[in-house]
Amino acid sequence: MTDTTSTYTGPERVFSGVQPTGKLHLGNYLGALKKFVALQDSHECLYCVVDLHAITQPVEKGALADQTRQIAAAYLACGIDPAKSAMFAQSSVLAHVELTWIFNCVARMGWLERMTQFKDKAGKDAERASVGLFDYPVLMAADILAYKATHVPVGDDQKQHLELTRDIAERFNREYDAPGFFPLPEPLIQGPGARIMSLKDGTKKMSKSDPSDLSRINLVDTADEISKKIRKAKTDLLGDMPSEVDGLKGRPEVENLVGIYSALSGEPVEAILRQYGGQGFGVFKPALADVTVAHFAPITERFREILNDPAEIDRALAAGADQARAIAAPVMDEVRRIIGFWQV
Ligand code: TRP
Fold this sequence. Notes:
Blueprint: E1 13-18, H1 26-39, E2 44-49, H2 51-54, H3 64-78, E3 86-89, H4 95-104, H5 109-113, H6 116-122, H7 131-145, E4 151-154, H8 159-175, E5 186-189, H9 223-231, H10 252-265, H11 269-276, H12 281-307, H13 310-339
Parallel strand pairs: 1-2, 2-3, 4-5
Helix pairs in contact: 3-12, 4-7, 7-8, 9-12, 10-12
């Protein structure tokens, strides 16, 4: 594929989205939200609660608006600043839907049929999956390109969707003789270090759907709950802490705990192992509990506070939607002109 990125001369802009399904945890914070927050200082950012994506699969009746507020509260608690970034619900900016339709006519069936996430989510009975679930990646492309976003912080699992977004942008630009109109957005993939595993099984990702609540540290957990979960975290019977990175091989639980320590404190893994190597978990775990409480408990406390004031969350979301609409409107005007729809 020819790279037409270089022909795009617009400003750099960041877009990302989180689905309003389920509760967030330490893995989401370290894997995604922390990065979102850091990008605010260098870029114009849009952070969306992707509620249109959420309805591609069954949603609990009447729960959607509250779940949207929950994600907005998480954004705010982690440090998304509505004065710097546009934080809004996807369904309140109609450009997402309009551009999805246009992109439906740009994307090819074959492209979507290759999407592994659809195959995973649809399972064996793809005939019964909603058309929306199939079209999910096209909506995602519209999310990003309605704002001509150039950079998209996402997890590894979204890489294929970003490639599709680039294919759609490239084909639109070519088909409508509009070179460089849409940027070809780049994923900012979180490194493997940002992958936080279950506290009960170092080979499984920390997940909101794990039946054991002890497997994860939730955004709603208090300082006491956080310490308790770290103390009860699984380790192994291979003895003390290793003093070098090599010693973490084959010890996924220990590697995960050291990774959490490093991600929260900012200390490199090597330095942590130098300090705790040769010591037992009776020493390391309380130290990790302290680090986790010091860095994460203020966030969970703020989260619980913000949730107590839903009117404030609603005001932030409404203001963010206004900002987002103002950015998308001129892009959509241009899109309509480029396609050649009748207009006055
Ligand atoms: N599909 C993404 C996820 O599950 C969420 C998402 C929707 C998104 N639209 C987006 C992420 C646009 C980045 C950009 O994580």
